[in-house]
From TrEMBL:
Keyword tags: Pyridoxal phosphate
One annotated GO molecular function: carbon-sulfur lyase activity
Protein name in UniProt: Methionine gamma-lyase
Organism for this UniProt entry: Gossypium raimondii (Peruvian cotton)
Gene3D superfamilies registered for this protein in UniProt: Aspartate Aminotransferase, domain 1, Type I PLP-dependent aspartate aminotransferase-like (Major domain)
Record's keyword annotation contains Hydrolase: no
Length: 459
């Protein structure tokens, strides 16, 4: 019998020996009926208003030979001692909660461990990781909405999500979306059709405009009409915990801050165990049947980065606040939720987990695409402040002109509705080098802009 090692503060347990189909341990948890023990449920961890406390309360997964890091279960398929066990696994009588695995498109132990970490991070009962953020979003929408279903969504969303809701889901599944200004709660309420609207979808901090959603109020008004709330928290892991504020489901593009390395594409769905289990159902599960599975080796890599996510977020946010404050002093039109003049500054302060700051992204509005491009050119090629690239959450500063890149799926009317100006430069603030060194690089690029022309708009 193999033993699963665990920290004294975690949940200890005996693991089924490799290829053994029965247990020696007469532990209640192992004899619980499947219906009593959701496959994906995690033990509620300490929260203390800080996701770091929740993460630290999680069972530490040791390696098979006592390694301090968990082992990678790099198997696509799993063996059993008796054919009868296979039948019982397929009926759902035996599952991952009892260490019975079928096939890695279904459950994989390493991916499941990462899911436990992400669930602890978001304070949800369960989570499962996917091959991309879009896989997480599309799978949730398909699971929650049947053909003919209706969605109410924020008009300001990542371009891919906007296109999914505007073009793909109506064409392929007859799932339609009404887009609203998420800060206009009356409009949101009016758009939700009781009995028909299955999902209210928004980003906690919107891409790219950095509008902050009032998660508690939006959740309440959706729940009053029997509508589920799905929140994309890609821009603010650790900073905001949407499920703790009332949302039902939280989705992530792990490719961003959670990864931090800009080397992996990945996503997660966090929510009630009942939802996650339904998504893995052999007959009706969007994750099981569409198959946007995360590879176990990728899950291992990501799992090693979650323990320092909090430290990274604090530094991304600290620098973003400092730069935004200094940019404002220079007369630059800067949007940052940490600034007092941001329309939702106080709302964000009231919802945020203390000590993490106000997010690692800021936007500079250069008014025209031409000026935006010139600024980015100087910031990259004259002074090495950052890299012209889409994505976010990397240790280097990344910058892109949203209207012509990650929001280019929106037509000009949709961009205007979303509040995306043609000269909006989104910056994901990195933490390499010293803050002063990087700031002097920023100033140098601004001087080059001013030398180039007098077009730079001081106000
Ligand atoms: C807010 C947001 N959600 C979801 C996604 C999609 O994530 P992925 O690229 O991992 O599929 C992105 C990608 O840019 C994003 O910015």
């Amino acid at each position: 019998m193999a033993e699963t090692r665990s920290c004294e503060f975690g949940i200890s347990g005996m693991k089924r020996a490799a290829a053994a189909d029965s247990f020696e341990v007469d532990d209640e948890i192992f004899v619980a009926k499947k219906s009593m023990l959701p496959t994906l449920a995690v033990a509620p961890a300490a929260w203390e208003n800080d996701p770091a406390a929740s993460l630290a309360g999680l069972r530490h997964e040791f390696g098979e030979h006592g390694g301090i890091n968990m082992s990678i279960e790099a198997s696509a398929t799993f063996t059993v001692m008796e054919p009868e066990t296979m039948r019982r696994m397929f009926t759902g009588e035996l599952g991952p909660d009892r260490d019975f695995f079928i096939y890695s498109r279904h459950f994989n132990p390493t991916v499941l461990n990462l899911g436990r970490q992400v669930a602890a991070l978001e304070g949800t009962e369960a989570a499962y990781c996917t091959a991309s953020g879009m896989a997480a979003i599309s799978s949730v929408m398909l699971q929650l909405c049947s053909s003919g279903g209706h969605v109410v969504a924020s008009a300001t969303l990542y371009g891919g999500t906007h296109a999914l809701l505007t073009h793909f889901l109506p064409r392929t599944c007859n799932i339609t979306t009404t887009f609203v200004d998420i800060t206009d709660h009356e409009a949101v309420k009016n758009a939700i059709v009781e009995g028909r609207t299955k999902v209210l979808f928004f980003e906690s901090i919107s891409n790219p405009t950095l509008t902050v959603a009032n998660i508690p109020e939006l959740s309440k008004l959706a729940h009053d009409k029997g509508t589920m709330v799905v929140v994309d928290n890609t821009f603010s892991p650790m900073v905001l915990s949407p499920a703790r504020l009332g949302a039902d489901v939280v989705v992530h593009s792990i490719s961003k801050f959670i990864s931090g390395g800009a080397d992996v594409i990945a996503g997660a769905v966090c929510g009630p165990a009942s939802l996650l289990n339904s998504m893995m159902d052999l007959h009706q599960g969007a994750l099981m049947l569409l198959g946007p599975t995360m590879n176990a080796k990728v899950a291992f890599e990501l799992s090693e980065r979650i323990p320092h996510l909090g430290l990274r977020m604090k530094e991304h946010c600290r620098r973003a606040l400092e730069y935004a404050t200094r940019m404002k002093k220079l007369g630059i039109r800067v949007v940052y939720p940490g600034l007092e003049d941001h329309p939702q500054h106080h709302l964000l302060k009231s919802m945020a987990n203390k000590g993490y700051g106000f997010g690692g992204l800021l936007c500079v509005d250069m008014e025209s695409e031409e000026k935006a491009n010139r600024l980015m050119h100087h910031l990259q090629n004259s002074s090495q402040f950052g890299l012209i690239a889409v994505s976010l959450g990397y240790y280097e500063t990344l910058m892109s002109c949203s209207g012509s890149s990650t929001s280019s799926e929106l037509n000009s009317e949709e961009k205007a509705l979303a509040g995306i100006s043609p000269g909006l430069v989104r910056m994901s603030i990195g933490y390499t080098g010293t803050l002063e060194q990087k700031w002097s690089q920023f100033e140098r690029a601004i001087s080059r802009m001013e030398v180039d022309s007098t077009l730079f708009n001081k106000n």
